[in-house]
Write a structure and sequence with these properties.
By secondary structure, the chain is mainly α. 54% of the residues lie in helices and 9% in strands. It has a two-stranded antiparallel ribbon with strand order 1-4.
C-alpha cells in the first residue's frame, strides 16, 4: 500500500503531505483496485496527478470527525473521484464553498464539470458565484489542454446523453458552467 499511497500524495500540493498521509491512513480499499490512472494538471508551479476514480471505502463519521478541517477537505476532494456518482456529489457539496480558502480544490471541481452526472453539474452551477474568479482564471491559464478536454467532454455528454432533453446546448447545465468559466478566465 505504501507505493500506492505515495502515488496518491501526488494528487495534492507537496505542502499537504502530512495531511494527505493522515487521510490515506484511514481509507480502506473496497476491492482489489484502489484507484485508476490519473489526470495531470499544473497547479501553482507543481504537477498534480489526480486519480480518475478511486475504489475505496469512506471512513466512518467517527474517523472523519478526528480530522482537521484541512484534512477533511483533502478527504472530500479524494472522494469527488469515487466510482459512485452519489458519493462524488456528496463530497463535492462539502468542499465547493471552500475554494477560496483551499484553492487546490479547483482541479477537482473542473474535472467534475467534464463528467456526465447532471446532479453534480447542478451543484457546481448553483455555487459558481462563491468561487473567486481569479482562481478559475489562473487554473485555466495553466491548464489549457486539460481545460479543452473538459470542454469537449461537456459537449460530448450533452450530445450523447442530454441533447433530447436540452435541444439547445445553451440550456444544458454543463455548457452553462463552461460558459461561466470561459467568461471568468478571459477577464483582466
Amino acid at each position: 500500500m505504501l507505493f500506492k499511497t505515495n502515488k496518491l500524495l501526488k494528487a495534492f500540493p507537496t505542502e499537504l503531505k502530512e495531511d494527505v498521509s493522515r487521510v490515506l491512513s484511514m481509507i480502506k480499499q473496497s476491492n482489489k483496485l484502489d484507484f485508476s490512472s490519473g489526470f495531470e494538471v499544473d497547479f501553482s508551479g507543481s504537477k498534480l496527478i489526480i486519480p480518475e476514480r478511486i475504489y475505496m471505502n469512506e471512513p466512518s463519521l467517527l474517523q472523519y470527525n478526528t480530522l482537521t478541517d484541512r484534512q477533511q477537505v483533502v478527504l472530500n476532494c479524494l472522494f469527488t473521484r469515487h466510482h459512485v456518482g452519489f458519493i462524488r456529489e456528496e463530497h463535492l457539496k462539502k468542499i465547493i464553498n471552500q475554494c477560496n480558502d483551499y484553492n487546490w480544490i479547483i482541479p477537482y471541481i473542473i474535472q467534475l464539470t467534464g463528467e456526465y452526472v447532471i446532479e453534480i453539474l447542478q451543484v457546481i452551477k448553483v455555487n459558481l458565484d462563491s468561487i473567486d474568479k481569479s482562481i478559475i482564471k489562473e487554473f485555466i491559464a495553466e491548464n489549457a489542454t486539460f481545460y479543452n478536454t473538459i470542454e469537449s467532454r461537456v459537449i460530448s455528454y450533452w450530445n450523447c446523453n442530454y441533447r433530447s432533453k436540452y435541444p439547445a446546448i445553451t440550456d444544458y447545465v454543463g455548457y452553462e458552467i463552461i460558459e461561466y468559466f470561459n467568461a471568468k478566465s478571459s477577464l483582466y
